[in-house]
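Handout, section B. The chain below has 312 residues.
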Amino acid sequence: MNPLSRTSAAVRCALAAGALSLVLSAITHAESKPRTMQQVLEASKPSDWRSLDPQDTLYLDLAAGRVVIELAPAFAPLHAENLRTMAREHYFDGLAFVRAQDGFVVQWGDPEAEDKDKARPLGKASRTLAPEFERATSKDLSFTTLPDGDVYAPEVGFSEGFPAARDARASKTWLAHCYGMVGAGRDNAPESGGGTELYVVIGHAPRQLDRNVAIVGRVVQGMDLLASLPRGGGPMGFYEKPEQRTAIKTVRLASDVPESARTPLEVLRTDTPTFAALVESRRNRRDDWYHVPAGKIDLCSVPIPVRTPPAR
């Protein structure tokens, strides 16, 4: 019998309320031998996984392959809608990656954006938007709390499937700059970004950027294509010559792509006992190689598994 099947209804309610530490304790007592992450995933149920919403999924296609991005409209609704508009108007098609800073981010956009005469027109999209650095905490916003604390926030965990943080006193919740997160570049003014320049974290989590930039989503597939881009030699990793840039073929909403050309993916839900078991498997590694389990885990070290839906 799967040990998770013996998890009590009270524990399940605690997970729904965000009390992940109670669930971890229940799992520890229920399992005679701690499981590896692979074993946890092998025992998962179809209901533990969710399909990507085509309306909130971007396909960034390069010559080397496809990058799949899940948008985060619960945290950046204005940016999500603006990106949908830009994708439908083919704004990004033929633009390029202009920056690849080692250990930090890669960034794409219009190389001619600073020249008003050459900058690509935006059509119905907006060049700037109100800042969406954080949002009000609400009862309808799910939040699964991690038990080990954080340096940057009073509380961290996962919300709507994304790594997040919150401050109960201020009643604010925000997304965190973990590996693979997508942010909207801006100038000094808070409202100076709108999604025309996007970056992806490819290095150590730059959490100091939290609540200073609108995080608009997360790469769920294709990070290998981005993390391996040639590093720029200019200041902050910008490419110094046009031929050094990697061109973007197209950026499309999945909903605007024929179903036969879509990339079917499922993401592990972060509000289930299975996810709690996965967190515990990473907090206390029991693989044969580990002799001293850490007993703790930071927010950006928790993986969110993605898979191709199994045949049913």
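Note. The chain has two domains: 3-51+266-307, 54-261. Compare this with the example in section A.
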